[in-house]
Amino acid sequence: MSLIPVTILTGFLGSGKTTLLKRILTEAHGQKIAIIENEFGEENIDNEILVNDTQENIIQMNNGCICCSIREDLRETLQLLAAKKRKGLLAFDRVVIETTGLADPGPVAQTFFMDEEIAEQYLLDSILTLVDAKHAQTQLDDRQEARRQIGFADQIFISKTDLVAEDEVQALMHRLRHMNPRAPQKAVHFGEVAIADVFDLRGFNLNAKLDIDPDFLKADEPHDHDHHDHEHGEHCDHPSHAAEQGSHHHHDDDVKSFVFRSDKPFSPAKLEDFLGAVVNIYGPRMLRYKGVLNMEGTERKVIFQGVHQLMGSDLGPAWAEGEKKTSKMVFIGIDLPKDIFVQGLEQCLV
Ligand SMILES: Nc1nc2c(ncn2[C@@H]2O[C@H](COP(=O)(O)OP(=O)(O)OP(=O)(O)O)[C@@H](O)[C@H]2O)c(=O)[nH]1
User: Which of 127, 129, 79, 93 is nearest to 107 (CA)?
Assistant: First the structure.
């Protein structure tokens, strides 16, 4: 049986991974894609953003990060998918794994080499890395995960070039080329790419990856499956465990997330004022925020999201018959004062 190609889609928080994926899914290409989604924070907001009426299979893995705490779950999910395909229970041609914005793609890629059963069934086609032209320079300065994502890329897509001047794009491309001379770079506008630029790149080159990470094929301790459970308790406190209390990701202890939920509708004007004010103050520390909102004056869901000071919203699908109109918002940032956010948001409810 031929091997199932796998694409790892990575890129820092808010870099445009879901936008690109959505675009790929809506493009008529006649391929069936199984998607493994790993989000930071336990809310499935990306599911609301991704098209739901396609034939694609979307599997959410939100109780941890696939590059560490739930790597074993990733392995099991891949096994299960392959078994279902073999038995004719599920039809798909390829798998796309969308990592969280804070994931190190290295350990995810490792799964396809270290694990014999997985290696017998899957072929890692390539690692695609999205880079946010507006925020990448700071992200690369500040965050090790962002640098690793560039290092591991087989193909780099630069999003949001519409938000910056051409010379800034050029400077970014120059920097990325220094970090990873092998990966071709391409600007993408809201995920607009040709399927040929995304699939069957056969970009994954083990030797090149060993240059970046000489220990690539060693079962390094924190990522070792067997040690998982207690490693976890000692070193990390992932969103799944403590999203409500302000959790953090073990890659970077200062990155925390919290969730706000309410069944009452938001007043659009109040919410806009409040968010405008908080991004002014905390924007530089607000790495990523998104939500599905129940907004006064519309029967449709409002999908709201942002990165640092830049935020936007869209009308999503209508609330389904009988569906509880609960607003959910996730904030991921550095030392964000959860109480101020929660109290402020409560004040914006009708
Ligand atoms: N201006 C502009 N905005 C973009 C572009 N691509 C994506 N965006 C916006 O950037 C925001 C983040 O995009 P997503 O696709 O959700 O990013 P992501 O990488 O999936 O985010 P996380 O998984 O939450 O880290 C959304 O508001 C998108 O509409 C682009 O080319 N230009």
Answer: 127
288 Cβ closer than 6 Å to some ligand 1 atom: yes
If one counts every other C-beta atom within 10 angstroms of the C-beta of residue 239, the result is 28
Cα 190 to ligand 1 centre (Å): 7
298 within a domain of the structure (yes/no): yes
Counting the structural domains of the chain, the total is 2
- What ipTM describes this predicted complex? 0.98
Residue nearest atom 3 in ligand 1 by C-alpha distance: 160
Report the separation in Å between the CA atom of 159 and the middle of ligand 1, taken as the mean of its atom positions: 8
Percentage of the chain lying above the pLDDT 90 cut: 47
User: Ligand 1 pocket, 134 CB below 6 A?
Assistant: no
Q: Are 47 and 72 in contact (CB under 8 A)?
A: no
pLDDT tens by residue, 279-304 = 999 999 998 898 899 999 999 999 88
C-beta 13 within 6 A of ligand 1: yes
Indicate which residue's Cα is closest to atom 2 of ligand 1.
160
CA of 79 to the centre of ligand 1 (A): 31
Q: Is 314 in the pocket of ligand 1 (CB under 6 A)?
A: no
Are 135 and 217 members of one domain? yes
- Residue 115 pLDDT class (50, 70, 90 cuts): confident
Residues 191 and 266 in one domain: no
Range of the domain at 127: 4-226
The domain that holds 188 is classified in CATH as 3.40.50.300
